[in-house]
Every structure is written in structure tokens, then in C-alpha cells.
């Protein structure tokens, strides 16, 4: 019988279909179907093209050095895994066949129609085996559902072993791309505290943040009400991130103040609004994907998963739905440029020319004009110049202050541990804990320590009673710069106090002291024993030994009563004043007054600037300015006033330093007898030039016992004088004037 099998023993010359079989040499194949000749001249079956399923809402395919890359806007958590199922709660409805798994705190980001693979799960008894490939039928964010078929028995309990994973075949990889047209999304802050090092600020954010929120991202904090932590409100930069218990832990905001409690608030970041709908083009550049993608009608251009901002700078997306949002976007673009900084208040953008090497300082003479091009018919854009093209002037030194209200006179000492100031880093101005036996002595010791040991060049301090006044280098901060003062123990920088007197036959049990909006700061009730002195001393010891973040001080009023001060250990200069309520039981005639405080007591000046002009060349002697009034805000009265000289030229004088309304004077030298005047008064200043000085007024409220004080903002007095003219000229030539700023 003839064989139906043909054996080819030699086709060393491979496949050559270019020639006829009549002219080909021996050992050449003419035709090969569904086969392949490899490099060893062996016949192999041809590889078939097989359709492979990728997860829903993925687009495009790009070959990279590490595999095949596909894209989408789905959360990356759906593509990570496998996820452990051991111990998770699950239910099975034997009538509908639906198997549900409850994840904590949130499920992977599966969507309906996704294929998942369950493996290694020990199947609950008497129900269909959930292992294998399943199709997602529901995902609530915590509960994932899929069908395994009906049965006789149901199930409710915890799973044993097993994993779940999105069906995502090798060698595919996923890259998440987010719509550049985004809107602000709010996330709640549920706690604020120190990080694991105990010093840096750590925010605990409710839930998981989008995958594009990483170290280096900028977010905005608002709504923090804790006075010790208020400085965290505003823009912050992420320095560390982790996830714990379904919440996101973010390290940002610099040093965490010692003794500060927790607070709540929120953060605002950008979140994806429109899902990816198509990939227009994709290629590799330096081994990373460069992609052009559509999100509905929005287009995004990405490199290695990040938006290429150069393509979108200046573009206002459709999510801008209000003037305030538009102002924020404009400010963001201005801040991305060199040489300018912008801030936003409502729908107003304020732009300032700055020194690129030091963003806290304006460029000398850095004036500029804004010429907007308006192409929209939906509204108007108005440009208002805030400063004209004038010559630059030397920056003034910013001044900040805080007041030590009490120490513990019963213990004989009080301490200040730290003083921090804004815009000059997180450096402590004190070299260690400063302790003294009186309020005035403690303020003087703090000022002396700052002057002799603080590490920042240009900072100086002086004391006035219990007030410490700190002067910063020119250009480093604003007047009333933010101070963060941290007391050690038995020294108070708040002005909340009780008048305590246990009486001649009294006995008191103090059960609670509750600051406004807070909780009881006593660790246990305090019972009087013998004298008011011993009772107050026991209360302060209770506060100092506790962990409430409060301390105490005392002032003996000399009438059998003692003022018991309550103060936060850590207080910022713009923290609101506190009040408190005490709860006590009594026998006999003992009393504790309701807390008093200087809440809202402050001081201001009646005018921001005045000027006095002198014409001619015959006037000599004192030149009065228009008057300025120091005005108390709040308090009870009557008030005492004391104008104080800070620094500068002692030729500038205040007329009546103990009056609320005063005028300042200075010597203006006329041209006719300038030399004689200078010689007779032994003046050392030049005949032409300026003299400057700084003053403030301390207002004492004598209607509150103990008295409380408020200090006006520093007042800069500048006297300019020009000599050598015989008559007035235009533009103030020949005039002397005094300016208040």
C-alpha cells in the first residue's frame, strides 16, 4: 500500500517562493501553510492571534521596555493586588446566587462588568465554590458583589484565606491619566497632631486621596479653629504620606507646637471630573510614555503619567464657574512665573513684583503695568494699580510683641520655653528655658536671651514691663508679625483669671475649669485646705501636672483674695483671648468669681499718616504735627496712657506722653541760621536729610483687677527737612514734613 505520508528529510535552504519548483535546487520549500521554519530549519506551528480581554474603561496600547502599557482614568487601586480576603465578612444569598464581600475601609475600585479572579479561598460548606473567574455585578465602595449560582443553603460569616484580583493579563501594565479640567474637592481633617518624630505636623484625612496626590503636592487647609494651630490654615506642601485604618496621614506644615491639642478642619485638592474617553496618540520618549488623550471634550497631554503644564498655562477650563475661581486660577498662573507673586481675596487678584532670589522682598523700583486683553463678552476685567512708579525706599523693620500676664507668685517663679516667629523659619529665638521670679524680670530675661543668643542676624528685643517687643530684620515680615510663644510652667501669656477667696469659715471643692469651647482642664477635683494661698497653689499644681495643655499663675491682690490665672501653654500672637467657667461646691462663705478676661481688648491709632509743612527760611525751633489719638478697643476703663520711644532719632519728641491725644515735634533748621543753630544745640545730624523714630502707646485698663494692657501698633515718625532756599518752591522743596505710617 502506498503511504499517504510525505517525509521531507532535507530543506536546508528554507522557504523560497520566488522560484518555480522546476528551477529550484533540491532542499528548498515552495509552500508552507500554518507553519513556521525557525532558525534551526525546523518546522513549528504558527502562533495564533488570540483576543485578550482588558478591564473596562482602559484605552490604547503602547509597547514599552517593561511591557504593554494601557491607559485609563480609573483609580489605580483596582489594578493592584492580589487583595487578601482572609477574615473579611461575606454573605451569600442562595436564592439570587449573589456573593458579597465587605472590605474595610474601602474596596478596590472595581466597576460593574470587571472580571475578577478569586483563588485560594476555602469555600464555605454547602454552597457553590466562589473560586475562579467572576464578573462584578456591584461595588458600593465597601461591598463587592458577584454571582456564583443558586444553591440550597445561604452563608454569612468570615472568609478563610484566599485572594481577589482584577483579571489583567501579563505583560499588560496600567497608567492612570486624570482630566486636566478639574474642580476643587473637599476632604475632612479628623485630627491634627505630631508625627512619629514628635515635632512635625501630621494631618489625619478621612478616607483615601486620589493617586495623583503625592509628596510635593500643594493643598489648601482651612477651618482650623484651635488657636495654637491656626497658622496651619492656608497653602501647605506634602512632605510625607501614609495610609492607616482607611485614613490618609499627611506630614506638612512644619514644626508642631509642643502641648498643642487636636483640631478639625478640611483640605481642598483637585479631583478627577471626566473619565478618559480615547487615546489620540502615544509614543515613547526617553523610555516613558508621551500621550495625547481626550476626556470627553477636554484634551490632556501627559508625560510619564503627569500633565505637561506647558500646554495648558493660561488656559481657563470649563470648571471655572465663578469670579472667585477664575481669580484663583489667574493667581496660580502668576505664581508660576518668575518675579511675581499673587494673592486672592474673593474675586480680586493682587500681584506684586518680587526679587526672584528672595520672594519675601519686593524688587527695588519693580513697577509694572498690566494690560489685559479681554475677548469674552460675559463679563469685565478691571485693572487697578496699587502703587505708582516711585523711587524705592529702605525697608522698615517689622515689630511684634507678646505680654507675660502672670507667673505663679505662690511658687515664686515662672518660665518661658520657646519663642518662634513667622517668615524667619522654625528657629527657636531662645537658647533654653528662661525662668524668673516676677513678670517684669521674666520679660527682661527673655529679651536679654534673644539679644545675646538668638541665631538669626538682625533680630533684637526689649522689654517694657511684662511685654517683650521683638524687632525683625527689614523686609523679613509684616508689622505685628506672628509670634508663637510656648510657656514652660507657672508662666501665663493669656489674660483669663478667677478671683479666689475661701473666706473665714469657708471650704471649697473646685470640680472643673472649662475654657470656652473646651473640656475640663483639671485632672481631678481640688479641695481647699486651710488658706486661699494653699488652695490656689494646689489648683496650679493640678494644671501643671496634667496634660491639658494649660498652666496657671497667681497674683496676690492683698485683700485676702488671689487672682488665679489660666493660660494655654502655647499661644500665638493672634490667638483669640480665652474665657473659662469654674464649677465648685462650697460651705461657709468661700467664693470663686466668674472668670474675667481681656478678650477683645486692644488698641489702635486714629490715623495712619499726618504731615506738617513748613515754608520759608526763617522758622526755627519745634514744629508740631497734627495730633494722633491712641484708642482703646473693648475693656472697661478708666484707662491710663503712656507713649514710649522705641528707636531712631531722639530729636523727634512726643508732646504729652501720658495723654491719649498727642502731637510730635522736631527741630527743622532754617537756611538763615543753620550753622549757628547746629553749633548752639550741638546737633550732629546734617543740615539736610531726614530723622526717624518709632513710638507706641501702652494703654492700661484700670477697671479690671488685676489691670490689663494693650499696645498700639508701632508708629513710624519721619521728619524730612531741606535747607538752602530763600522762598518756597514747588513739589515740597523748601518744606519740612512729618509722615506717620
Weakly predicted, low-confidence segments: 388-395, 615-621, 669-688, 722-741
Q: For the CA atoms, what is the radius of gyration? A: 39 Å
What is the CATH topology classification name of the largest domain? Immunoglobulin-like
Numbering strands along the chain, what is their spatial order in the largest sheet? Answer: 5-12-8-9-10-7-6-11
Please indicate the percent range of residues in DSSP E strands (runs of 2 or more). 35-45%
Distance between the termini: 121 Å
Q: Helical segment tally?
A: 4
| DSSP helix fraction | under 10%
Instruction: Please tell me the overall pLDDT.
Output: 74
- The domain count comes to 7
What's the architecture of the largest domain in CATH terms?
A: Sandwich
Number of strands: 53
Protein described:
The protein is mainly beta. It has seven domains: 1-49, no CATH class; 76-176, Elongation Factor Tu (Ef-tu), domain 3 (Beta Barrel); 183-271, Elongation Factor Tu (Ef-tu), domain 3 (Beta Barrel); 323-368, no CATH class; 399-491; 494-592, no CATH class; 602-740, Immunoglobulin-like (Sandwich), CATH 2.60.40. The chain is 7% helix and 38% strand. The strands form 14 sheets. An eight-stranded antiparallel beta sheet has the order 5-12-8-9-10-7-6-11, with no helix packed on it. It has a seven-stranded antiparallel beta sheet with strand order 17-16-20-14-15-19-18, with no helix packed on it. Strands 46, 50, 51, 52 and 53 form a five-stranded antiparallel beta sheet that branches. The termini are far apart. Mean pLDDT is 74; it is low at 388-395, 615-621, 669-688 and 722-741.
Amino acid at each position: 500500500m502506498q503511504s499517504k505520508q510525505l517525509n521531507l528529510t532535507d530543506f536546508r535552504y528554507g522557504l523560497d517562493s520566488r522560484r518555480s519548483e522546476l528551477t529550484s535546487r533540491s532542499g528548498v520549500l515552495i509552500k508552507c501553510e500554518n507553519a513556521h521554519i525557525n532558525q534551526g530549519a525546523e518546522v513549528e506551528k504558527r502562533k495564533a492571534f488570540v483576543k485578550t480581554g482588558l478591564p473596562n474603561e482602559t484605552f490604547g496600547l503602547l509597547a514599552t521596555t517593561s511591557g504593554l502599557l494601557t491607559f485609563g482614568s480609573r483609580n489605580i487601586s483596582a489594578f493592584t493586588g492580589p487583595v487578601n480576603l482572609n477574615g473579611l465578612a461575606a454573605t451569600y444569598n442562595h436564592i439570587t446566587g449573589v456573593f458579597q464581600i465587605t472590605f474595610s475601609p474601602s474596596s478596590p475600585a472595581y466597576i460593574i462588568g470587571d472580571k475578577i479572579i478569586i483563588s485560594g479561598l476555602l469555600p464555605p460548606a454547602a454552597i457553590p465554590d466562589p473560586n475562579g473567574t467572576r464578573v462584578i455585578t456591584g461595588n458600593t465602595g465597601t461591598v463587592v458583589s458577584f454571582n456564583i449560582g443558586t444553591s440550597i443553603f445561604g452563608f454569612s460569616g468570615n472568609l478563610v484565606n484566599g485572594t481577589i484580583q482584577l483579571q489583567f493579563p501579563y505583560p499588560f501594565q496600567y497608567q492612570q491619566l486624570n482630566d486636566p479640567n478639574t474642580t476643587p474637592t473637599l476632604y475632612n481633617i479628623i485630627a491634627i497632631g505630631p508625627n512619629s518624630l514628635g515635632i512635625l505636623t501630621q494631618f489625619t484625612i478621612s478616607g483615601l486621596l486620589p493617586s495623583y496626590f503625592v509628596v510635593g503636592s500643594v493643598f489648601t487647609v482651612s477651618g482650623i479653629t484651635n488657636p495654637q494651630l491656626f497658622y496651619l490654615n492656608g497653602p501647605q506642601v506634602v512632605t510625607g504620606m501614609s495610609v492607616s485604618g482607611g485614613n490618609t496621614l499627611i506630614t506638612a506644615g512644619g514644626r508642631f507646637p509642643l502641648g498643642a491639642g487636636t483640631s478639625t478642619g478640611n483640605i481642598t485638592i483637585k479631583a478627577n471630573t471626566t473619565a478618559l474617553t480615547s487615546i489620540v496618540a502615544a509614543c515613547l520618549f526617553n523610555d516613558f510614555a508621551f500621550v495625547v488623550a481626550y476626556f470627553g471634550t477636554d484634551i490632556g497631554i501627559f508625560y510619564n503619567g503627569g500633565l505637561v503644564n506647558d500646554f495648558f498655562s493660561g488656559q481657563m477650563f470649563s470648571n471655572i464657574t465663578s469670579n472667585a475661581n477664575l481669580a484663583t486660577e489667574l493667581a496660580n498662573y502668576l505664581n508660576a512665573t518668575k518675579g511675581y507673586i499673587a494673592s486672592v481675596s474673593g474675586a480680586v487678584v493682587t500681584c506684586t513684583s518680587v526679587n526672584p532670589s528672595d520672594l519675601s522682598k519686593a524688587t527695588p523700583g519693580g513697577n509694572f503695568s498690566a494690560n489685559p486683553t479681554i475677548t469674552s463678552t460675559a463679563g469685565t476685567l478691571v485693572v487697578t494699580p496699587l502703587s505708582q512708579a516711585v523711587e524705592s525706599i529702605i525697608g522698615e523693620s517689622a515689630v511684634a510683641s507678646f505680654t507675660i500676664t502672670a507667673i505663679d507668685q505662690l511658687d515664686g517663679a515662672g518660665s518661658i520655653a520657646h519663642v518662634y516667629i513667622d517668615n524667619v523659619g522654625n528657629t527657636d529665638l531662645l537658647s533654653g528655658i528662661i525662668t524668673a521670679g516676677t513678670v517684669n524680670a521674666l520679660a527682661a530675661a527673655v529679651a536679654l536671651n534673644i539679644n545675646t543668643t538668638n541665631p538669626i542676624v538682625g533680630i533684637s528685643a526689649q522689654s517694657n514691663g511684662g511685654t517683650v517687643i521683638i524687632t525683625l530684620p527689614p523686609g523679613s515680615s509684616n508689622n505685628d508679625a506672628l509670634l508663637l510663644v510656648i510657656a514652660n510652667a507657672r508662666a501665663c501669656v493669656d489674660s483669663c483669671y478667677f478671683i479666689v477667696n475661701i473666706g473665714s469659715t469657708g471650704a471649697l471643692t473646685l470640680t472643673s475649669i472649662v475654657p470656652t469651647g473646651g473640656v475640663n482642664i483639671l485632672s481631678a477635683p481640688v479641695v481647699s485646705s486651710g488658706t486661699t494661698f494653699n488652695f490656689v497653689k494646689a489648683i496650679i499644681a493640678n494644671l501643671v501636672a496634667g496634660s491639658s495643655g494649660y498652666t496657671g499663675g497667681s497674683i496676690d491682690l492683698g485683700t485676702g483674695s488671689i487672682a488665679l490665672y489660666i493660660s494655654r501653654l502655647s499661644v500665638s500672637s493672634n490667638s483669640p483671648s480665652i474665657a473659662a467657667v469654674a464649677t465648685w461646691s462650697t460651705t461657709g462663705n468661700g467664693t470663686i468669681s466668674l472668670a474675667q478676661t481681656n478678650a477683645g481688648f486692644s488698641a489702635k491709632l486714629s490715623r495712619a499718616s499726618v504731615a506738617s509743612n513748613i515754608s520759608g527760611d526763617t522758622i526755627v525751633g519745634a514744629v508740631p504735627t497734627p495730633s494722633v489719638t491712641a484708642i482703646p478697643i473693648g475693656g472697661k476703663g478708666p484707662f491710663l496712657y503712656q507713649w514710649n520711644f522705641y528707636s531712631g532719632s531722639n530729636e523727634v519728641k512726643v508732646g504729652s506722653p501720658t495723654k491719649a491725644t498727642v502731637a510730635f515735634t522736631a527741630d527743622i533748621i532754617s537756611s538763615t541760621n543753620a550753622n549757628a543753630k547746629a553749633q548752639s544745640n550741638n546737633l550732629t545730624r546734617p543740615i539736610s536729610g531726614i530723622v526717624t523714630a518709632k513710638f507706641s502707646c501702652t494703654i492700661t485698663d484700670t477697671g479690671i483687677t488685676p489691670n490689663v494692657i494693650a499696645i498700639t501698633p508701632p508708629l513710624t515718625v519721619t521728619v524730612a527737612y531741606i535747607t538752602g532756599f530763600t522762598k518756597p518752591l514747588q513739589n515740597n522743596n523748601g518744606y519740612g514734613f512729618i509722615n506717620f505710617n
